[in-house]
Structure formats: C-alpha cells, structure tokens
From TrEMBL:
InterPro entries linked: EGF_Rcpt_Signaling_Reg (IPR053202), FkbM_mtfrase (IPR006342), SAM-dependent_MTases_sf (IPR029063)
Organism: Orchesella cincta
Biological processes per GO annotation: endoplasmic reticulum to Golgi vesicle-mediated transport; endosomal transport
Protein name: Protein Star
Entry superkingdom: Eukaryota
GO CC annotation: endoplasmic reticulum membrane; Golgi apparatus; late endosome membrane; plasma membrane
Positions of the Methyltransferase FkbM domain: 134-294
Length: 555
C-alpha cells in the first residue's frame, strides 16, 4: 500500500479523534494498532510523547512537511525517530561507563598487539587517543582487537557483548571504555534473540539462528534470550558519531549488522569484519557502496578478517603530521617509505607475537631459567616509576632470555614490544621462547636509505632502519629502547618517534671523556635527552650501559 502525505495527516487526525472516544480499557489495543500503522510509515515512524517534531518527507513527486508526536529525540533516516526516554532507559539498563585507568583488572596479565590491530593502527597512522567499537568483545581480553590501542595509545571506546558469562567477565576487567551488555541487532530495530555460548571455549558464541556449524550443536549451552539494539541506538546513548576503528566478530550475523548501520549519519574510518562461510563478496559489495575500499585480508590463529578503510578518510592530528614525514601518501617521495615498503617489511621481516591457546589463562613462555633481574632493567623501571603496559624495543635481543633488558618488563610490568635479532641460531631460540613481542628477523641499519630499496629485493637479508619496523606495526611511541651498540642512533627520527628512555651499550666498563658514550651523550642532548646513569658490566668483557631519558618538557 502506498501512503501519501494526506494519508498520514488523515491518519493522525483519526487517531486523535478516536483517542477521545475510546474507553481506557481499549487504549492498549489501539496502541498495538498504532504500532502496526507506524510500520507502514517507514522513515516517518511516529513515537508518542509530550512534544512534537516536524519531519520532512517526500510523496510522489513533491516534498512535504508534517508534524508527528514525539518526545525529545534524535532521528536517523530510514530507522525512525527514537524517543529520548528509550535512550535514557537503554543507557541505564545496558550501558556501563568507562572505568578509571587505575581499575584495570586483567586476568591474562598481558597486552597483545597482534597482526590485525597492528595493521589497523598502521592505516590510522599510529593515531593516539582514538575511539574504537569492538562487537563481540568477549571478556575484553582474550584475542581483543582493541586492548592494545587502549593501553598503549590512550584510546577509549565501546565494547559490546551479549553472552551473559562473557559479559560478566568483561565488566570485571575495568576497561577504560563503555560496555554494552547486549547484542547488536541483525535487523534495523530493537529485538531479542537467543544467544548460545560454547561449553568448553567461552570465547566462542553466537546468535542461535546464525549458527555456522563451529562444532556440534551439543557443544553449546541451551542459550538465553538477550536484548539486541542497532549500533546507532547505542551511539546515540553515549553521544558518539565519529569512530576511528570498528571491529565486528560475532560468528555469523556480520553482514546483517553492517546493513543496519546508517553510514550517512555515522563516520567510521576503518572496519575489520570476521569472514564466515564465503560472505566476503557480499560484505565487500555493501561497504564499497558506502565508500570503503578493502585493504587487506588477515589470517590469524583463530580468526580471518577483512579490513576496509573509508576512501576519503583524512586524518589531521599531530600523529598524522609525524607519520607523513616518514611515509609517502601516494607515489612516494625521495627517502620516504611507501605503503608497499611497509607491507614488504611486515610480510618478510616481522613475526607477530603468538597468542597461545585461548583456554589457558596465562602465557606459557618456554624459558630455560627464571627471569633474569637485569640491573639495567631495574634502573629503567625506576626512571619510569614502575610503569605498566609499556612498549619496548630491544636490538640484538640474542635468544630473548640471556641478559635480556626487556624480559623482566614483559613478565612483571606487562609490557609488549619489538625484539630485533638476525643471527639464525639465536633467532630460532628467540622464536621458541613464546615471548609477547614482535620479532624482527633482521639487523638495524645505520643507513636510513636501506628501507626504500625493499620493493625491488624484498626477501634477502636486510638491515632496516628502526622506524621502518615500527611503522610497519603502527607503533610511533616507545617507552624504552635498548641498543647493544650506538651506531644506529643517527638513523632514528627523534622528531617524529617518541622514545622516552634509551640505554646504549658499550664494551668499555668506564665512562670517560674519550669514550664513545660521550659522543652519544652529546648527540642525544640535541634532542632533549639527559644522561641519567651508568650501569657497569659485571666482567671485563661484558657490556656496560649508559641510560638517557627524554626531558619531560620535550615529550
């Protein structure tokens, strides 16, 4: 049936007249009839309340303006007008505000920046203080695509989880993000659906009608009814319309959820979508219609995700300015890396941190002995006030254990980072340790130009500038840099990379005016670093380290 503007006005008048004549006992039945008729009105759905709002529409070949009853509300075209009282109710019953940063309570005790998150952060040019949405957030920790952005780069966001057991754990983690205790609706209106969790793996669950056959039906609990809302309902409740990263991993209804999003009202820069049972082509077609381009298909131990980016996406914060000094935006600039270079580095010279079995509560590192208490590490920890959730770089990482300056930070202070080692035997040992860090299978270059030659010869042994490795994993901030020798310092762009503390090793066990350490000190002072101390090696042949820290006013 086709509804004209006159039909709508007549219907409103008829309803008003009938309300005066109907006895109170029949008003509830009339309300049901009203809802039925409102469905026919499509984008002009009326909502009963105290105030009125004008709505513009089109009928046939001419425009009109009519007045529909409504509360104070926010409207999304084609999804109706949502009453403010409903938004307030939803916010009260289903949304938990971000926790203070000192309330973080992780079970696994690590921050994992895997391949997917690293690539997304790279697309966003290492952005700080961004906003994420993670749909299917589970407990906020296991295989989280957003935790490292929050802890390492100051992001906040919205975590959405409908499974009751996972939601309980999520709320206990104290994440600095909103938590929505509901599922995302696979239809463009509020609804309820049955959600089931796996009996053995709580990270696995789904809306029952979208079961993908991941295991047998009897592997899952019976399920329970869960409230589901379209994404824009939740965003209205928290007052957000600009999202940097949207992660969707819900084991089935990804395509249906994406279809409900009013992309003309909400700005989303990067989207990652778990791909299930060949629905990639439909998802790609849908997102391309909204101005997105598929950038990459990533495969990890547990999930396969397609990454999309808005084609007219323009970032203009300070992080982007720093990034543009190092990475060419189009066809390349002399001395600048290209996105192709970063892909080559990531594919051929970097190993991501392994996550490990999802059913294991803590990482199982394969260490030969107890964690070595490095005197250099102790000095650094004191300088950084025993900081937790930091990012390190250790060049010449050896086997990742013997005399490591970063292992204690990783285990006791819950850091992650980048370990650089090129010697084949030591590299094999390093990878076997199962450390929570990226591993660069190359040496660090003392010549910045080396990285720009990768496109022509990507797989030979390379010595790469430090910043090229960090750019490839989307990390522009380093809390601690451990260098075995000072030769690479001149290749580090200190005006664009943020490095708080540096230790530089020398074979000398003393610090005098003729030593290399004096030259290092003079060089680093140009960039706002101050010598903080000297840790002497415990033997004639051992390395000694001089430690420098960036003046806080220069950070």
């Amino acid at each position: 049936m086709h509804w004209t503007s006159m039909d709508i006005l007549k219907l409103s008048a008829m309803k008003a007249a009938l309300c005066l004549l109907l006895p109170s006992s029949l008003l509830s039945a009339f309300a049901i009839l009203s809802l039925y008729n409102n469905d026919k009105l499509g984008p002009w759905m009326s909502v009963y309340g105290q105030k009125r709002v004008e709505v513009e529409g089109k009928s046939g070949s001419w425009n009109f303006t009519t007045t529909l009853p409504s509360t104070d509300s926010l409207s999304f075209e084609n999804n109706g007008t949502i009453p403010q009282q409903d938004i307030d109710m939803m916010k009260k019953q289903y949304l938990t505000p971000p926790s203070a940063k000192d309330q973080l309570n992780l079970t696994r005790k690590e921050v994992w920046k895997g391949p997917l998150t690293s690539y997304v952060h790279r697309l966003l040019k290492g952005k700080k203080n961004g906003f994420f949405i993670e749909v299917g957030a589970n407990d906020g920790e296991i295989l989280s695509t957003t935790l490292s952005l929050e802890l390492l780069s100051g992001w906040t966001g919205l975590l959405i989880e409908g499974l009751p057991g996972a939601l309980k754990n999520l709320r206990q983690k104290g994440r600095n993000a909103w938590v929505a205790g509901c599922c995302l609706s696979p239809v463009p209106y509020a609804t309820k659906r049955i959600m089931r969790g796996h009996k053995t793996y709580p990270a696995v669950g789904h809306i029952k009608e979208f079961f993908l056959g991941l295991g047998r039906n009897d592997n899952y609990h019976q399920g329970s009814e869960v409230q589901c809302y379209p994404l824009h309902y939740l965003l209205l409740a928290i007052g957000i319309t600009n999202i940097d990263y949207f992660s969707v991993d819900v084991d089935g209804p990804e395509l249906n959820i994406l279809k409900t999003i009013p992309f003309d009202k909400i700005s989303i820069k990067v989207i990652s979508v778990e791909i299930n049972k060949g629905d990639q082509s439909e998802i790609t077609k849908l997102l391309e219609g909204h101005g997105y381009k598929m950038m990459k298909y990533t495969k990890e131990d547990y999930t396969h995700d397609a990454v999309y980016m808005k084609t007219e996406n323009k970032l203009s914060d300070n992080t982007t300015t720093a990034w543009s000094k190092l990475v060419a935006s189009n066809n390349g600039k002399p001395g600048h890396l290209t996105e192709q270079d970063l892909d080559t580095i990531s594919d051929n010279h970097l190993k991501p941190p392994p996550f490990g079995p999802i059913e294991v509560a803590t990482r199982i590192r394969k260490l030969a002995q107890n964690v070595w208490k490095s005197p250099v590490t102790e000095f650094v920890r004191n300088l950084l006030k025993n900081k937790t959730y930091g990012f390190f770089v250790e060049a010449w990482a050896y086997d990742g254990e013997s005399f490591s300056n970063t292992l204690q930070l990783e285990v006791e202070n819950i850091w992650t980072g980048l370990l650089v080692e090129v010697a084949p035997t030591r590299l094999k040992e390093l990878l076997s340790k199962q450390r929570n860090a990226w591993v660069a299978t190359c040496c660090l270059s003392s010549e910045e130009s080396n990285a720009t030659e990768l496109a022509n010869n990507p797989v030979v042994d390379k010595c790469l500038p430090l910043h090229s490795l960090l750019l490839a994993i989307g990390q522009l901030e380093v809390d601690y840099l451990s260098l075995g020798i000072p030769g690479v310092l001149e290749t580090i762009p200190f005006d664009t990379l943020s490095v708080k503390v540096i230790s530089v090793g020398t074979h000398s066990n003393k610090f005098d005016d003729d030593d290399d350490t004096t030259k290092v000190q003079n060089y680093l002072e140009k960039f706002g670093y101050k010598k903080m101390g000297f840790v002497q090696g415990d033997s004639e042949h051992a390395f000694s380290d001089t430690i420098f820290m960036k003046d806080e006013k220069s950070l």
